[in-house]
Design a protein that fits this description.
single chain; alpha/beta; FAD/NAD(P)-binding domain; Enolase-like, domain 1; five-stranded mixed β-barrel; five-stranded parallel β-sheet; 14 helices; 21 strands; binds flavin-adenine dinucleotide; binds 1,4-dihydronicotinamide adenine dinucleotide; oxidoreductase; disulfide bond; NAD; Pyr_nuc-diS_OxRdtase; redox-active center
């Protein structure tokens, strides 16, 4: 019964589009990143007449074009090179004349990005999402003016609008981006050659991922971090272990240091730093300085404030219940609103808005959003950190298991790291899972599911896991939280 009604709605939508194109859209999405394009596809699938306005010329936003995907392509390639360079001999594999063809690396990265962004254009066509390549701005709450990339102008009318305009790198005062010497992540992904020396300001997620890429390829990398630990938001024990591993790999960390200033010398740069707690100044020189001290919401030229949309003190679009902006029919999601700046968080919010607009119960569980750092080993986390639980006064139990005691990790010769499981002391309910180790980014999915379904650590511990797999380490960490592990 429901299926038949859904089909009729869909057919009607297609008919509407071809016959009454001057009719308003049900939904116009501004921004074609993971938040925006996913929302547009879902809305169209649910029968809404949907358009997406994207100025970049390609779909996929920061994530596909200059974020998640190109960085993961470079991380994968550089990891393979380093593995061959450092580890193959010990495994009995002989490789002669190993080297890096940087132009080919960049081409491969571009091919991967190109195929994915074109794939989304295909999904728009398949789902009948109208795609406008251009800059969208509000002229009223129901009218979007578009400066099309081909120079033409068009105005479209809509019942609802979703702002999904994302974010951009935060510039550092006195070290303006030229994307040649002083670079953001965008420049770091597209360097003309492998640098000899790289200084990274900010030991967060971008900092450690890009530091890993270039360190593996032979660059001398120094990371300057203001705080006393890297990737500040993650569990402290994991952060400390992670920093030790990266240091052993060859990345130099100057934690607890602040940047006083710097100079772009044209073909190199100078940065002056000083310990936060006081001490001697240090001058660092490098071919490039990567500034990765965070990203800021992007609302430039959108004219959102002119229709009554409000920004908070960090420039993010203020939202209330159900992603509403306070202006009737105008919603916002993704990096441009509060919350972790992650592609999958933006996607979940996009789906929720499409569902809310079609009378369904769109919902995002912010307690079950994983975070992954794609270094080697990877770091993956979900739920509360030990510091958060202590601060909130929650009585918790803790279990952990090292990859050193996991047979698959041994067989793969990847034994660094551990899994830490935090549970409610009384009920055994999973509160947080934190992994530093091989394949952590894939393994965390099981913990996310556990948290989503309100599982206890005993539930995961009693679940049969294939042998030999890395995921047995999660089972054992849960056994350790709940009672005792077997293999330790
Ligand atoms: P965006 O992806 O930023 O998309 C917004 C789009 O809106 C842009 O394409 C922009 O051109 C367009 N736009 C803006 N204003 C207008 C306008 N007025 N008219 C038309 N179009 C407009 N996240 C992860 O989850 N995993 C990762 O591994 C990961 N790696 C990253 C690596 C790097 C180097 C960077 C920089 C980010 C990474 N992120 C990662 C973060 C992720 O890219 C963002 O969280 C995600 O892209 C946010 O999606 P969004 O749709 O909110 O915004
Ligand atoms: P971030 O917030 O992760 O890290 C910024 C770091 O810079 C922090 O450790 C902070 O303490 C430090 N810092 C700030 N000011 C400083 C200063 N003046 N001197 C020295 N250090 C300073 O931000 P980052 O790395 O720029 O990434 C931006 C966003 O992109 C993140 O929110 C992240 O979620 C997303 N991203 C996600 C990835 C993933 O999921 N794998 C990969 C890359 C980015």
């Amino acid at each position: 019964m429901f299926k038949t009604r859904y089909l009729i709605t869909n057919q009607f939508t297609h008919f509407q589009r071809s016959s009454f194109s001057s009719q308003p859209f049900d939904l116009v999405v501004i921004g074609g990143g993971p938040g925006g394009y996913v929302a547009a596809i879902k809305a169209a699938q649910l029968g809404l007449k949907t358009a997406c306005v994207e100025k970049r010329g390609t779909l996929g936003g920061t994530c596909l074009n200059v974020g998640c995907i190109p960085s993961k392509a470079l991380l994968n390639i550089s990891h393979k090179y380093e593995d061959a360079h450092k580890n193959f001999k010990g495994l009995g594999i002989k490789v002669d004349n190993l080297g890096v063809d940087w132009a080919q690396v960049q081409k491969k990265k571009g091919d991967i990005v190109g195929s994915l962004t074109k794939g989304i254009e295909g999904l728009f066509a398949k789902n009948k999402v109208s795609y406008y390549k251009g800059w969208g701005k509000f002229t009223s709450k129901n009218e979007i003016a578009i400066d099309l990339n081909d120079g033409k102008k068009e105005t479209i009318t809509t019942k609802n609008t979703l702002i999904a305009t994302g974010s951009e790198p935060t510039p550092f005062p006195g070290l303006e981006f030229d994307e040649k010497v002083i670079i953001s992540s965008t420049g770091a992904l597209a360097l003309q050659q492998i640098p000899k020396k790289l200084v990274v300001i900010g030991g967060g997620v971008i900092g450690v991922e890009m530091a890993s890429v270039y360190q593996r390829l032979g660059t001398e990398v120094t990371v300057v971090e203001y705080l006393d630990n890297i990737c500040g938001a993650i569990d402290l024990e994991v952060s400390k272990a992670f920093q030790k591993i990266l240091t052993k790999q060859g990345i130099k960390f100057l934690i607890g240091h602040k940047v006083l200033g710097g100079k772009n010398l044209g073909n190199a740069a100078e940065v002056v730093i000083e310990p936060v707690k006081g001490g001697d100044k240090i001058t660092l020189t490098a071919d490039h300085v990567l500034v990765s001290t965070g990203r800021r919401p992007y609302t430039q030229g959108l004219n959102a404030e002119s229709i009554g949309v409000k920004l908070d003190n960090r420039g993010r679009i203020q939202i209330g219940h159900n992603f509403t902006t306070g202006v009737d029919g105008v919603y916002a999601i993704g990096d441009v609103v509060e919350g972790p700046m992650l592609a999958h968080k933006a996607e979940e919010e996009g789906i929720a808005v499409a569902e809310i607009l079609t009378g369904k119960v769109g919902h995002v569980n912010y307690d079950a959003i994983p975070g992954v750092i794609y270094t080697n080993p990877e770091v993956a986390t979900v739920g509360k950190t030990e510091e958060e639980l202590k601060k909130a006064g929650v009585q918790y139990a803790k279990g952990s298991f090292p990859f050193l005691a996991n047979s698959r990790a041994k067989a793969n010769d990847e034994i660094e790291g551990f899994i830490k499981v935090l549970t409610d002391k009384k009920t055994d309910k999973l509160l947080g899972v934190h992994i530093v180790g091989p394949n952590a980014g894939e393994m965390i999915a099981e913990a996310v599911l556990g948290i989503e379904y309100g599982a206890a650590s005993e539930d995961l511990a009693r679940t049969c896991h294939a042998h030999p797999t890395l995921s047995e380490a999660l089972k054992e960490a849960c056994m350790s939280a709940h009672f005792k592990p077997i293999h330790m």
